[in-house]
């Protein structure tokens, strides 16, 4: 029997599921009447998406459709940061650069570790790059930590891995 039990807190997503959701979005847009003869583009890059549309109304329709497809593919919608405003592009179109959120940045990791350390005194939460390793001598305590973190919103999707 192990003397210490642990798990990792990470923030990641399945990139292939994102590609599939974007493909479904593109296919649906081809058949929509309001997008007939209307220029639009959805490009997936390493760090994010670039969405181009004819006007702000069509941009909103595309982003709503992308969010719907993410939900249907069981992806958390918080992996996309839509906070950037539309910017004008060539040919009287608008463009939006949407950032992909993967991994825990230092501020979020510190915030999560602080919540764990203030609520559970006999638990070690150590930040290891883009993940947090939480260890405790009791499995029940680790499960309580998971439950607590699920109730809080840190602005990023959290997954719990390597539970041992």
Give a quick precis of the structure.
With 164 residues, this protein is of the alpha+beta class. The chain has helices at residues 15-31, 56-72, 106-119, 139-151, and strands spanning 5-10, 41-44, 48-53, 80-81, 87-89, 93-100, 124-128, 131-136, 159-161.
Describe the structure.
Helix content is 37%, strand content 26%. With 164 residues, it is α+β, with helices and mostly antiparallel strands. It has two domains: 5-12 and 104-161, 2-Layer Sandwich (Alpha-Beta Plaits); 15-100, Alpha-Beta Plaits, CATH 3.30.70.990. Strands 2, 3, 4, 5 and 6 form a five-stranded antiparallel sheet that branches. The longest helix has 17 residues, at 15-31. The protein is elongated, with a radius of gyration of 20 Å. 21% of the residues are buried. The mean pLDDT is 90.
Give me the secondary-structure topology.
Blueprint: E1 5-10, H1 15-31, E2 41-44, E3 48-53, H2 56-72, E4 80-81, E5 87-89, E6 93-100, H3 106-119, E7 124-128, E8 131-136, H4 139-151, E9 159-161
Antiparallel strand pairs: 1-8, 1-9, 2-3, 3-6, 4-6, 5-6, 7-8
Helix pairs in contact: 1-2
